[in-house]
Each structure stands twice: as structure tokens, then as C-alpha cells.
């Protein structure tokens, strides 16, 4: 759908959309955070570099 926008509330820090400190509490949380991160990247809200940085943080790297 052309012109679709994604609204992300928070401080503007991509990690803020991932929850408290971006730390995954369980495997399910981690999967949900990665799915949300992928959607943000697909929508253009995150650059490739931001996506990779946040993905590494979620995965503990």
C-alpha cells in the first residue's frame, strides 16, 4: 500500500522499540524482537547498519 507509514513511539533510539535496554528475556522474546526489527528495516525506519547493530545486541553479540 503506497504511502504506508510505520509509527514508532519512543526516544528515537532503535533499541527503545525493543523493550527495556533491548535485552531479550527469553527465546520467544528474542524472536519477537528480531521480527519487529526486521519490520522496521523493511519499512525503511532502520538502515542496514542500524539493523545489524540492533540484531547483534539482541543476539548477545
- Average pLDDT value? 76
Low-confidence stretches: 1-5
Q: Sheet bearing the most strands, described?
A: none
Tell me the distance between the termini.
35 Å
Class by SSE composition: mainly alpha
Number of strands: 0
Q: DSSP strand (E) fraction?
A: under 5%
Helix content: 40-55%
Order of helices and strands: HH
Count of helix runs: 2
Query: How would you describe the shape?
Result: flat
Rounded to the nearest angstrom, the radius of gyration is 11 Å
What does this structure look like?
This protein is mainly α. It has a domain at 25-58. Helix content is 46%, strand content 0%. The protein contains 2 helices and no strands. It has helices at 27-43, 48-58. The longest helix is centred in the middle third of the chain and has 17 residues, at 27-43. The chain is flat, with a radius of gyration of 11 Å. The chain starts with 26 loop residues before the first helix and ends with a helix. Mean pLDDT is 76; it is low at 1-5.
Amino acid at each position: 500500500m503506497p504511502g504506508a507509514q510505520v509509527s514508532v513511539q519512543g526516544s528515537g533510539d532503535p533499541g527503545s522499540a525493543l523493550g527495556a535496554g533491548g535485552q531479550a528475556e527469553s527465546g520467544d522474546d528474542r524472536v519477537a524482537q528480531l521480527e519487529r526489527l526486521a519490520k522496521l528495516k523493511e519499512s525503511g525506519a532502520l538502515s542496514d547498519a542500524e539493523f545489524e547493530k540492533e540484531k547483534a545486541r539482541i543476539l548477545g553479540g
